[in-house]
Model the fold of this input.
Amino acid sequence: MTPMEKQNYYETLELSPKATWKEIQMAYELAKKTYAGDGLASYSLFDEGERDNILDRIEEAYHVLSDPKKKSKYDAALAASGTDSASASEAASLPPSVEVPIPEQITGEVIKALRQKSGVSLEEIAETTRININYLESIEMDRFDFLPAEVYVYGYLRQIARIIHCADKVVEGYMQVYRTGRQLKK
Amino acid sequence: MLNGNGIGRHTPVYRDLFEEIEISRKEVWAVGGGKGGTGKSFISANLGVSLSKMGKRVLLVDADLGCANLHTFLGVDPVMTLSDFIQGKVSDLEKVLTKTSIPNLYLLSGARDYLEITNPKHIQKVGLIQRIQKLQFEHIILDLGAGTAFTNLDFFLSADVGILSVLPEPTSIENAYRFIKSAFYRHFQKWAQEPLIRKMITNAMHEKNERGIQTPNDLINHIASMEGAVGKKLQKAVLSFSPRVIVNQVRSRDDITLGFSIRSSCSKYFGIKVDYVGYIEYDDHVWQACKKKNPLVIESPYSSSARCIDRVLSNLMKKDELKLESVIRTLGV
Done:
C-alpha cells in the first residue's frame, strides 16, 4: 500500500484512473463524510490533525480531478511519469468544458444554461451537495421568495459553481440579481 | 422449530444473484466482529441455511466456546457438543454433529457450562481446527465469540474468508477495529519467523514506540524499507489478509454508506483491503424469527433483511463487494 503522502490523486480518492466524472463526485462526497470531525468510521483510528491532513489531500485531489482541463494535464503528467493514467476514451464521461459567453446579468436562466452545458442534472447536484432540489429549481427559476437567507444561497451557488465549473463572477452576478429581486419583493 | 417453509422456493431476485456461481472446493468462513450482540450468530445461521437451500452441504460450527447459542437460531437441541470432544468423551468429531431439519445442514454445537474449554490449550485448538477442516462439507461456517481472545483470532485466521459483523454504532466500530488490529498482528507474526521482526511487530502493537510506528501501515513500510526480502514476504502477508465487512441493523442511508467509510479508513490506517460485502436492514422480522427459533431466511424469506442476506451471500460467493455507485443509484443515497 503506497503511503498516503506518496499517493496520486486517484489513490487518494480510492478511484480507478478510469473513474467517470460521476464516480469522482461520489468518491469525493464519501471521503469528506468519512473523515469529517464526526466521521463514525475514522474518529477512533485518526486524531483530528490526521483527519485534517487527509481532508486537505482529498480536497487537493478533487480540485484537480473534477476539473476537465486540470485532470487532462494531470493524466498526461501521470502517463509521462509511467504511472497508470486515465484512458483517452474516458474523456467522454467528463462534463464538457464550459466556455460560453457570460451575459452581464446572471439570472437563474443563465445558471440553468451553464448547468445544461456542463451535462449535469439537477438531481445529480442535489445528490452530490445534499441541497434540497426545490432550492435548486428555485435558483434556476428566480423564485427568490422560495429561497432561504442570502448566506445560504451564496453557499449553494458556490457549490453549484464548483460542480458545473463556472467562474466566481457568475456566483457574484447571480447574488446581485438575488439581492435586487428580494428587495423589490419587499 | 423449523418448518421447512421456503426451502427451495427461490425468488427471482435470489435466482439472479446466484446465477453462474459454482464452488468446487471446500470453503471455510469465519464470522467475528469483536463486540457482542452484533449479529454474528444470526448472520452465520442465515448464511448457512441459505447455502444449504442452494443444495450445498454445509456445517455450522458454534465456535463461541462457553457462550454457545447458535443452536437456538436453528431451533435444535444438540445432544453432543464440542465440550464432549474436547474433554475426550467422544473421539470421533463426526459423532458430535447435530443434523438439523434442513437438508444438507449440520451443526457442530459449542460447549455450554464448562468453563475450562472457553480457553483451550493451543495444541487443543490447533487440533480442533484441523479436525473441523477435514470434515466432509462444501461450506464450513465458524460462528465466533465476542472479544479478541487468541481462540477467536486463531479461528478467524484459520478460515478462507474472515467476515466481520459491525453495527453502525461507535462501540461496535471501535471493537471491530480492535479485532482487525489484533488479528492483523497475529497473522503478521505467523508469517514473520525472524526474531527481530517478531519483536518489532510486538513493539508496534504498543501505541507509543521508539521507531515512530503509529499504524500497521507504518510498520509494513518500515519493514519493507529495512529488510528487502523480509519486507516483500510480509507485504505478501498483508495482501493475504483481507477481511469482509457486513454492516448489520442499518436504519439510514448513512448507515449503508458507513461500510464504504470503514473500507476507506482500514485502507488508510491498516494498509489492508477490506471488502464491504453488504448490509442488513434493521427489520422486525429478525426478532420475530429469533423468538420463534427459526432462521429468518426460512421464517420470512421475502423480508427486506432476508433479501439483504441473499445479497451478502452472493457477494461472498462471487468474491465481490458492494459498489458505491450501484448503492447510490438504487437507493438514491
Q: What stands out?
A: The domain at 108-185 of chain A is CATH 1.10.260.40 (434 Repressor (Amino-terminal Domain)).
